[in-house]
Amino acid sequence: MARPQEFETSEALRSAMHVFWRKGYEAASLAEILAATGLSKSSLYATFGDKRELFLAAFHAYRQERLQRLEQTLKDDQPVRQSIEAVFCQVVEHLSDPSHTYGCMTANEAVELAPHDLDVQRMVAEDFQAVEDAFVQAIARGQAEGSITSRQEPRRLARFFVVSLQGFQVMARARTDRTRLDESITMIMAALD
C-alpha cells in the first residue's frame, strides 16, 4: 500500500515557484527549494521529477496566475482604457514594494533560459501571445465602447503593449526612477488616443 501524500502539491509548487521567481533557475539550489517547500528530496522527485521538471511546472503555474490576474484587471467594471492603465500601474505598485523586487518571472526567464532552452523559449512565447490576445480583446472592447479612440488595429496596439509591458517590467525591476515610469505610462496610454 502506498504511503499517503503528506503535503499539498499546489502549495509546494507555489513555494518552489517563488524560489525560482526570486532567484532564477540556475541560482535556485535544491536545498533552498526543499526548505521553501518543506519537502524531502524523495518526495520532491516522486511528485515533480527533477529540478528542471519542477521549474517547468512552477513556471507554468506562474504564467496561469499572471494571465488570470491580467484578464481580471482588463475585464473589470471600468472603461477599458482605465483597465489597461491599471495593468501598468500595478507593475509600478508591485515593484515599489520592497518585498517584491524580483519582477516578472516571464521577463526573467526570457533573459535567463529562453535563449538556449527551447522548452522555456516556447513557454515564454506562449505567455507573450496570451498577454497579446488578452490586450487584443480588451482594445476591441474599448474601441467599441469609446474609451479607446485610436483606430489602430487592436492586434498592432496589443503587440506594442506586450513589448512595452516587458520593457516596463525590466525598468521597474531595475528600480528606475518612479517619475520615469509614470511618464512612460502616460506615453504608452497615448497610443490609445
Number of strands: 0
The CATH class name reads: Mainly Alpha
Mean pLDDT: 91
Order of helices and strands: HHHHHHHHH
Low confidence ranges: 1-6
CATH topology: Tetracycline Repressor, domain 2
Computed structural class: mainly alpha
The largest pleated sheet is described as: none
Radius of gyration: 19 Å
Could you say how many structural domains there are in total? 1
Number of helical regions: 9
Strand-residue fraction?
under 5%
What is the CATH superfamily? Tetracycline Repressor, domain 2
CATH architecture: Orthogonal Bundle
Folded structure, characterized:
With 193 residues, the protein is mainly α. The chain has one domain (9-190): Tetracycline Repressor, domain 2 (Orthogonal Bundle), CATH 1.10.357. 73% of the residues lie in helices and 0% in strands. The chain has helices spanning 9-23, 30-37, 41-48, 51-74, 80-96, 105-112, 118-145, 154-173, 178-190. Helix 8 runs antiparallel to helix 9. The protein is elongated and about 55 Å long.
What's this entry about, in short?
With 193 residues, the protein is mainly α.
Q: Would you spell out the secondary-structure blueprint of this structure?
A:
Layout: H1 9-23, H2 30-37, H3 41-48, H4 51-74, H5 80-96, H6 105-112, H7 118-145, H8 154-173, H9 178-190
Helix pairs in contact: 1-2, 1-4, 4-7, 5-8, 5-9, 6-7, 7-8, 8-9
